[in-house]
Design brief:
heterodimer, A: about 290 residues, alpha/beta, Rossmann fold, 12 strands, about 30% helix, about 25% strand, B: about 300 residues, mainly alpha, ABC transporter involved in vitamin B12 uptake, BtuC, 14 helices
């Protein structure tokens, strides 16, 4: 798979924010079409790692190459799903409209009335929106108000939104956060399927590895100012995780050969607060 | 001429054509209909976004602020119209300048600031009115609206401001919708979310000042909230509900003005009542439709 080409490459990268080194000496290589998870305890800079890939945070040392270009120059080829909370229950806007914003939401102007009937470009865009909704299995609920569907269903539509423009790299910040266990499993399976079928490189931030572990090609554990990267078998080992977390972590092998991580420190319920810089129960990540 | 005017004393008949002819006989009534039409369109357009953005409190405050604006303008002898716009736009800038990220915590501090501005504005209005002295009749008009005495130049001002506001909205419409329903992703995609929020508040100030001149400062919501809230009850398609909002606003204004013409009670009451009636009907209809669907579904399962 390495021969396909490199999607994301960190070379001796370091980030400083406000004079404090978040992490340094990060070396990481993700091949195109691979499924990478960025794991680690809260507050170590997982989201910062993602933002350097998007070009939203600059490096203090080293380099990041994304899809063959310096970070920040391949905007349209990256689908990004920020860390988020769910939509307000009373928001009377259909899921399909939210997905549609992924294709032209930032364009100035207003939609032309009946544009999908008369304008071929708008018709093609609407067709594409329906395609990605079908792809994520959201057709059944895409026409319902987004606030009235479940968190897992919302997350499917948001993944569709990130996919509308046919990105080569999909960057997902905690997409499984605040979902119930069955939804976590099905959304993780969906992301893996998209990764394989659409040949999209996936970079997924998570604090709980178990729901995604069966699908991963590569793992980057961020902790203690640096990162350990490799295949799951190389990285997800009791001694490595125990050292990273500085607390006893056990990696068990289930009877079907799957790995299960036990003793990973639990995430606090209000995970998003860590990233916003403005502490408080309702702060959002940006 | 005199006899014709006498013959056209307000009087409702069963002949609708005759009633409408009567309505249009007086220039003040024609001006009122023109002003009402302009205001209904601009209020519907901005109100639709306001309801989606949950900024009704900000909208209400911008309208309230236009009351001391107009009172102060009358006090110092400039046109009340100018007072409405200056006060509302200034208040919009103050509200937007409150440091506010996108988070809920920031929003609660925003509403505290808005409440403070609103209370201070009302107090200033009371002061200006008493400084002016003995202008009690005008006070009722400022608070509850009047459609008498809208001049042609006032209509022109309303039209120019409305056209400017709608032109700006036409440019920012889609990114503003994106920033409204999905601010995080919009920001990540390069939409200037903060800037759009500020521009929107200024446009909303213009709309609130326009509506205040017809319905009075206290009843602005009749045109700013009711049509949009009703339309959003009826459909979840953005373009359809936007068009429906403006259509409802126009219907409410025209009906309200027509009925007020034939009656002695303030126009603000009628406009508000028709808006309220529409909202109640829509909400009741939706809840009934939901119940019917549930019933059909349960029958189908059984």
């Amino acid at each position: 798979m390495r021969t396909v080409g490199t999607a994301v490459r960190f070379d001796h990268a370091a980030v400083q924010i406000g004079g404090r080194t978040i992490w340094s000496e990060v070396n990481l290589e993700v091949a195109q079409g691979e499924f990478l998870a960025v794991l680690g305890p809260n507050g170590v800079g997982k989201s910062t790692l993602v933002k350097t890939v998007l070009g939203l945070v600059g490096l203090s040392a080293g380099s990041v190459t994304v899809l063959g270009q310096p970070a920040g120059q391949s905007g349209k080829q990256i689908g990004y799903l920020p860390q988020r909370r769910s939509f307000d229950a009373s928001l009377r806007v259909r899921g399909v409209d939210i997905v549609g914003l992924g294709s032209d939401g930032e364009r100035w102007g207003v939609p032309v009335p009946f544009g999908t009937t008369f304008l071929p470009s708008r018709r093609a865009a609407a067709q594409r929106v329906r395609e990605v909704i079908e792809l994520v299995g959201a057709t059944a609920f895409a026409d319902r108000p987004i606030g009235q569907i479940s968190g897992g269903e919302q997350q499917r539509l948001l993944i569709a939104q990130a996919l509308v423009k046919g990105p080569r790299l999909l960057v997902l910040d905690e997409p499984l956060d605040s979902l119930d266990l069955p939804s976590q499993a099905s959304v993780a399976a969906l992301i893996s399927r998209i990764c394989r079928e659409q040949q999209v490189t996936v970079m997924l931030v998570a604090h709980d590895v178990n729901p995604i572990l069966p699908y991963l090609d590569r793992v980057a554990y961020v902790a203690r100012g640096g990162a350990v990267c490799g295949t799951p078998d190389e990285v997800i080992r009791s001694e490595i995780l125990t050292e990273l977390y500085r607390t006893p972590v056990e990696v068990l092998k289930a009877s079907d050969g799957r790995l299960v991580v036990v003793g990973e420190p639990e995430a606090p319920a209000r995970h998003t607060d860590r990233h916003s810089g403005t502490p408080g129960p309702t702060a959002q990540p940006w | 001429m005199v006899t014709e005017l006498t013959a056209a004393q307000p009087g409702l008949s069963w002949n609708l054509v005759e009633d409408v002819r009567q309505l249009l006989l007086y220039p003040f009534m024609v001006n009122a209909l023109r002003a009402g039409t302009i205001v209904a369109v601009v209020a519907g357009a901005l109100g639709w976004y306001m309801v989606l953005r949950r900024q009704a409190f900000a909208g209400h405050t911008l309208a309230i602020v236009s009351f001391p604006g107009a009172a102060a303008a009358i006090l110092i002898g400039i046109s009340a119209t100018a007072g409405y716009f200056i006060a509302a736009i200034a208040a919009a800038i103050v509200i937007a300048a409150v440091p506010r990220s996108l988070g809920g915590r920031a929003r609660s501090s925003e509403s505290a600031v808005i409440g403070t501005v609103q209370a201070f504005a009302l107090a200033c209005g009371a002061l200006f009115v008493s400084l002016y002295g003995g202008f009690l009749n005008g006070l009722t008009d400022l608070l509850f609206g009047s459609f008498l005495g809208i001049s042609s130049s006032q209509v022109l001002t309303l039209l120019i401001v409305a056209a400017l506001a709608l032109a700006v909205l036409a440019v920012i419409g889609r990114p503003l919708f994106f920033a409204t329903v999905d601010p995080d992703v919009a920001a990540a995609r390069g939409v200037p979310v903060r800037l759009l929020g500020t521009i929107f508040l200024i446009l909303l100030g213009c709309a609130a000042a326009e509506v205040s001149q017809i319905t009075g400062a206290l009843l602005v919501f009749a045109l700013l909230v009711m049509p949009a809230a009703t339309a959003q009850q009826l459909t979840t398609r953005p373009l359809v509900s936007f068009a429906l909002t403006i259509a409802l606003g126009l219907a409410i204004v025209w009906l309200g003005l027509a009925v007020a013409y034939f009656s002695v009670y303030p126009v603000g009451f009628y406009i508000t009542t028709f808006g309220f009636g529409g909202f109640v009907l829509a909400a009741a209809g939706r809840s009934a439709a939901g119940r019917v669907r549930a019933l059909v579904a349960s029958q189908g399962l059984a």
